[in-house]
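Q: I'm writing a short methods note and want an example of a predicted protein-small molecule complex. Could you take the sequence and the SMILES for zinc ion and return the bound structure as tokens? Please keep the output block clean; save any remarks for afterwards.
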Amino acid sequence: MIRCPSCARPQEPRLVCDQCGSPLPVPVDLDCFSALGFPRKLTIDTSALEAAYHELGRKIHPDRFASSASNVRALSLSGTALLTRSYRILRDPISRGLYWLELNGEKLAEDNKSVPRELAETVFEVQEQLADLRGASGDAALELQSEIEKRRVELSSTMDDLLAQLARNFSRWDASSGSNGNNNGSDQRALVAELKTILSKIAYLRTLLRDIDRGLETMKAA
Ligand SMILES: [Zn+2]
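A: Understood, no commentary inside the block.
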């Protein structure tokens, strides 16, 4: 519990006092879900999230506290920063998944140093095509360009599949950690492992798609 500096009401850690509307001193470890007043669930209604972000943003906006005591003004500034950061992390399912792993003491990088096996070959081939494209000219370049563009379409649809897998993983996790008290440790470990695998593939694919776009842009600019 924290205490409002303006009206002294004790309450759960949150950004804005539910009694007087003053910005609250949030604990340093306040998570992004609590900052936005959402339960710690992986599946999020993004329009509700956006609405909460705008509503809290209005309530805590520094302009509203321009003539308040300096500690209240400072809280409005730091609360606004935390609100924006939390919204950015939660609105994107990929950064939300990564953040959630971190909250649960799991790190993606540590067990995912290598390219996921299923993607390794594709990554290698595309990087090679991109290198060839840099050295190519005339018809050869055009041909390579169209091959890479075709590859891009395939990879985008792989990305869509992965995002759908991510959404399914999120809802399975939320269902298994619900209030029914039937948490199954081994199920949850399997879900976390799956979440890491999906996120790691997405990370590689995202980098690859970015490289492709850069390669194609350079080509068009030339
Ligand atoms: Zn208050």
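A: Remarks, as requested: The beta strands are 2-3, 10-11. The longest strand covers residues 2-3.
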